[in-house]
Amino acid sequence: MERTFLLCGVNIKPYLFVLQTQLITFTTDFGLTDGSVTLLKLHIAKHLPNIAFNDISHDIKALQISHAAYLIENLYPHFPAASLHVILVNSHHHKNSELIFAKCNEHYFLSPNNGIFNLLFQNKNTEYRKANTLHKNNQFNANIAEAIRLFFDAHEFNQLGEVYQIEQLNFRDKIKKDASGIKGTIWLIDSFGNLITNIHRNDLIEMIGDKKIEIHYGYKEPLTAIHSHVYDVDTHEPVAYFNQFNYLEIAIRNYNISRIFNLKEGDSVKIIPV
Fold first, then answer.
1. Distance CA 243, CA 111 (A)
2. What is the pTM of this model?
3. Which of 159, 192, 211 is the last residue of a domain?
4. 6 phi, psi to nearest 5 deg
């Protein structure tokens, strides 16, 4: 039997979709120096004055959806269920990029169709809808605000637009695991020049356990241990450790390791049992 939700004698079930959503997060590559973020929020607040905004980051590297995916994948589960996560990175990937809604793990996402969802939701049960908004040329803020208004006006996710099929693109290199060890890549180089890999702590536990290892990352001398923190070794000495999101990170304290060893995102990282 279908449940009925009453408030002061009124069935509010049709409105639960919007009522449970109280928070919008923003992730952009806009930066904070030219007022773009403020202008966008003001545009949205005209229509939704009571919704809370929370910034994940506006310092995503320009056009780097892999950087955005890394942060959002690790942070969105800590926000309340039913939050709407707006992702505006490489927003002008195409002149007329569609705005796409996604639903995954009881969270909602809005982004131009630029490949970000391929990174976030590989092999996850995700629904997609093309936003039913009137495209307004050269009115970026108006298009985003209209899509968000549509979201809060909808009673159900399927009212946001027609079903959309995301083209499967291989933006993100998968790690390779076999008897010889684990092969991954440098996923992201952060503002300190530290190397964030796509190798998770669980990958290492699953494949190698407590065996001794060598970590080959582009320097002639491999690392032979994973430490708890960058401060566990002397200055000038390379160190590997698991960061706050449990991904393997390689750094040199107080120095930019990527510049010293001329390393870049996408370069190979191997962990070999010895």
1. 27
2. 0.79
3. 159
4. -110, 140
